[in-house]
Design goal:
Layout (H helix, E strand, L loop, with lengths): L1 H48 L10 H17 L5 H10 L4 E3 L16 E6 L6 E2 L5 E2 L3 E6 L14 E6 L2 E5 L10 H19 L5 H10 L1 H18 L10 H14 L8 H13 L9 E2 L2 E2 L8 E2 L3 E2 L2 E6 L2 E7 L12 E5 L2 E2 H8 L8 H12 L1 E2 L5 E7 L5 E7 L1 E2 L13 E4 L2 E4 L7 H9 L7 E5 L8 H5 L7 E11 L8 E9 L9 E6 L6 H11 L4 E4 L9 E4 L6 E4 L2 E2 L16 E2 L14 H14 L1
Parallel strand pairs: 21-22, 22-25, 25-26, 26-30
Antiparallel strand pairs: 1-7, 2-5, 2-23, 3-4, 6-7, 8-28, 9-10, 11-16, 11-19, 12-13, 14-15, 14-17, 17-18, 20-21, 23-24, 23-29, 27-28
Helix pairs in contact: 1-2, 1-3, 1-6, 1-7, 2-4, 2-6, 5-8, 6-7, 9-10
C-alpha cells in the first residue's frame, strides 16, 4: 500500500510537470503567432502605404525577399521588437511603435513637398498594345499633396493602427522624399537577395529545390503574410462576403508553422498547394484562381505544378452528379447520363462538401461544380480515381479512371456550331468562336427563316458580341457600372472609385425579332456585362438561372509559388444595385431542382427557352 501511494505521488508529479511543459509550449506557440501577426500587419501597411520613392518600382518578388529576410531575422532573434523598429527605420523612418495610439506628428515642413502612395487598382497586369506602347491598368504612384487634390491623407497627423492588444503603429502616410535613405534601402534589398539565394542554392536539383522551399518555415510564413496583406488591403468585397479576414491572419500563420515538412518528398508541393487554396477560401470570388506556377527567377524560373483531370464531363442537377460525356480515348465502361454515386468509395455528396474548402466561388452552384472538379483531378499524375455510378437502367457500374494533363474534358462535338435554325427559331452561341459578329451577319442573311433568336450567354462570349447588341436597340447604351478603386490608406480606409463610362452604339439596322438570352452559373465576368445590358435596356428576355455574380477585370499577383488572380474592379448592375455574389437575375427562372429526370443529357434551360418562345407566339 505505501508503495502504491508513493507511485501515485510520483505519477502525480510527472503529470504536473507535463502540464507545466504543455502550458509553456502553448504559451510559446501563441507568442510566436502573436509576434508574427504583429510583423505581418506592420509589414503590409509599410509595404503598400509608406511613400518610399526608392521602392515605387519594386516588384512583388523584391518585397517578398525583403519580407522573408526580416521574418527569418525576427524568428532567430526570439521575436525581439528591435527587428520591427529596424524594419521601420529603413522603410518608414518617421513611424513609431507605441503602447497606445499616438497621432501626433513630430514635424511637418511646409517648405518641402509631401507625397503619398496612391493605388490605382492592385496587382500586376501588362498589355503590350504595340511594339513601343505598354499599358498597365493597375499601378501605384507617388502623388504630391496639393490644394487642388480633392482626396488624400492629412499632412498634419500620423495615422495610428492597432497591431496587437498593446501595440500601435503610428505612421505618416504623407511624407517627404528626402526622409528616406536610398543607401539603407538598397542595402536591405541586397542582403535580402543574398539570403533568398542562399536558401535556393542549398540544392542543385530543381525539384528538390522546390520541395526544400516549401519545407522552409520562414518561406511559408512569408507567403502567408503576403497573401493576407493583399486581401486585407485590396479585396473589394469584404462586407459582401461577410469576411472576418482580420481573424484569418493568426490561423494562416499557425498553418504555416504547423505544416508537416519532415519528409523530403514531392507530396510536400501538392500538400502546400492544397493549404494555399484552403487559406484563400474565405474570399468568395470566382476570379480568384490559385495557379500552379512557380517563378522564382534564376534557375528555378518557369517551374509548374501541373493539374491532371479525369476523362469525365459532369454536371450537377437537382443535387445529383450526372456524367454528361466520357472521353472515348479513356476506354471506360461508364456512360453519359449515369449518376455518380461515389468516388474512391466515399459518397459523392460528402466528397463535394469536403472539397468546398478549396474553392472561392461567389456562386453556390459554381462552388459545388468547382469542388467536384477539384475532387476529379489531382496535382499528382500517378493518382487514379475509382468511380461508382448508377446507370439510367438501374445498373451499377464501377471503373478506375486515370488522370491526364491538360484541361477538364469536354465533348465539343455537340456545341461547336455558332448557330442553327429550326422551327422558326435561330440559336446563336457566341462562346464557341472568336468572330461572333461575322457569324451573326451570316445568320441574319437567312432572317426570313426565323422569327425568334436564342442567344446562349452561358460561359464566355466572343468580345465582339457586344456589337451584336447594337442591332437590338435604336439608341446608344451607356455602361457605367465598372469602378476602379483608388486607395491611399491601409485596411481599405477611404477608398474611392473612378467610374469607367463606355457607350455601346446602336447599329443602323435594328433587328425586330423576339430575343431570348440564356443564363446560368457559368455566365461570368464579360458574359455578365452582356446580360447587364440586356436587363437594363430591355434587349430581350433572360431565361435560366442567376449568373455567376463575378464581374470586373481580374488582376494578377505574382508570388514565388502559387500566385493568384482576383477581381480588380468593383462591379454593380447598371442600375447601381449589388451584383457581387448575386449576379443577373433572369426574367424567367428555370428551376433546375424540379427537373423530372436527371438521368439524361437534356439542356433544360435551352428547352425552357424554346417552350417560352412557342408559348408566346401562339
Amino acid at each position: 500500500m505505501p508503495l502504491s501511494l508513493k507511485m501515485f505521488s510520483i505519477m502525480k508529479k510527472i503529470f504536473h510537470c507535463i502540464s507545466i511543459l504543455l502550458c509553456c509550449f502553448n504559451a510559446f506557440a501563441n507568442t510566436q503567432v502573436d509576434s508574427l501577426s504583429s510583423f505581418a500587419k506592420i509589414y503590409g501597411i509599410v509595404r503598400y502605404y509608406s511613400p518610399n520613392p526608392h521602392t515605387i518600382d519594386w516588384s512583388e518578388s523584391d518585397w517578398f525577399k525583403v519580407s522573408y529576410n526580416y521574418v527569418k531575422e525576427y524568428r532567430n532573434s526570439g521575436y525581439d521588437n528591435k527587428v520591427l523598429t529596424d524594419f521601420l527605420s529603413v522603410f518608414a523612418p518617421n513611424a513609431t511603435l507605441t503602447s497606445s495610439p499616438d497621432p501626433t506628428r513630430r514635424y511637418c515642413c511646409a517648405s518641402s513637398p509631401l507625397y503619398y502612395n496612391e493605388h490605382n487598382g492592385s496587382g500586376n497586369l501588362t498589355y503590350h498594345i504595340s511594339e513601343d506602347e505598354v499599358y498597365r491598368p493597375y499601378y501605384c504612384e507617388l502623388v504630391e499633396i496639393n490644394d487642388n487634390k480633392e482626396r488624400g491623407p492629412r499632412i498634419d497627423q500620423n495615422y495610428s493602427y492597432s497591431i496587437s492588444n498593446n501595440l500601435y503603429l503610428n505612421i505618416p502616410i504623407a511624407e517627404k522624399k528626402e526622409c528616406f535613405c536610398e543607401d539603407k534601402i538598397n542595402n536591405a534589398k541586397s542582403i535580402a537577395e543574398k539570403v533568398w539565394s542562399s536558401m535556393l542554392n542549398r540544392e542543385t536539383d530543381m525539384r528538390l529545390k522546390l520541395i526544400d522551399m516549401f519545407r522552409d518555415v520562414d518561406y511559408r510564413i512569408t507567403d502567408m503574410i503576403a497573401r493576407w496583406n493583399i486581401i486585407q488591403h485590396f479585396y473589394l468585397y469584404h462586407n459582401e462576403d461577410e469576411m472576418q479576414w482580420e481573424d484569418s491572419l493568426d490561423t494562416m500563420i499557425k498553418y504555416a508553422i504547423d505544416f508537416p515538412d519532415e519528409e523530403r518528398v514531392r507530396a510536400v508541393c501538392f500538400n502546400y498547394y492544397d493549404l494555399v487554396r484552403k487559406v484563400m477560401n474565405p474570399v468568395k470570388d470566382s476570379h480568384l484562381i490559385v495557379n500552379g506556377s512557380m517563378d522564382m527567377g534564376g534557375d528555378v524560373k518557369g517551374a509548374y505544378l501541373g493539374r491532371y483531370y479525369s476523362p469525365l464531363e459532369t454536371q450537377i442537377i437537382n443535387d445529383k452528379v450526372i456524367i454528361k460525356s466520357v472521353d472515348p480515348d479513356a476506354q471506360s465502361n461508364l456512360i453519359g447520363g449515369s449518376k455518380i454515386v461515389s468516388l474512391n468509395g466515399e459518397d459523392i455528396t460528402k466528397v463535394i462538401d469536403n472539397n468546398l474548402c478549396y474553392v472561392n466561388s461567389s456562386n453556390a452552384t459554381y462552388a459545388k461544380v468547382d469542388a467536384l472538379q477539384y475532387a476529379l483531378s489531382s496535382a499528382d499524375a500517378t493518382k487514379s480515381i475509382a468511380v461508382t455510378t448508377l446507370a439510367p437502367d438501374g445498373l451499377v457500374e464501377s471503373d478506375t479512371l486515370y488522370l491526364r494533363r491538360g484541361r477538364p474534358y469536354r465533348d465539343l462535338s455537340q456545341s461547336n456550331s455558332s448557330y442553327w435554325i429550326s422551327d422558326s427559331i435561330a440559336y446563336f452561341n457566341p462562346s464557341v468562336m472568336r468572330d461572333s459578329y461575322q457569324a451573326f451577319t451570316e445568320m441574319m442573311k437567312r432572317d426570313n427563316e426565323f422569327s425568334a433568336i436564342i442567344f446562349d450567354i452561358r460561359e464566355y462570349p466572343a468580345y465582339d458580341f457586344i456589337d451584336v447588341l447594337g442591332h437590338l436597340t435604336d439608341s446608344d447604351m451607356l455602361m457605367d457600372n465598372i469602378h476602379t478603386p483608388i486607395s491611399y490608406l491601409p485596411n481599405r480606409g477611404e477608398v474611392y472609385f473612378k467610374t469607367q463610362k463606355q457607350y455601346i452604339r446602336s447599329k443602323d439596322m435594328t433587328i425586330d425579332k423576339q430575343c431570348v438570352f440564356l443564363s446560368d452559373y457559368t455566365s461570368m465576368s464579360y458574359a455578365e456585362t452582356v446580360l447587364m445590358l440586356v436587363a437594363e435596356y430591355d434587349l430581350g428576355t433572360i431565361i435560366g438561372t442567376p449568373s455567376c455574380g463575378t464581374n470586373g477585370d481580374a488582376t494578377r499577383f505574382d508570388l514565388p509559388a502559387f500566385g493568384f488572380t482576383m477581381t480588380a474592379l468593383k462591379a454593380t448592375n447598371i442600375d447601381g444595385t449589388r451584383h457581387h455574389g448575386v449576379g443577373v437575375i433572369p426574367d424567367v427562372l428555370v428551376d433546375m431542382d424540379a427537373c423530372d429526370s436527371v438521368y439524361t443529357n437534356q439542356d433544360y434551360i435551352l428547352e425552357s427557352a424554346i417552350s417560352y418562345i412557342k408559348e408566346n407566339n401562339e
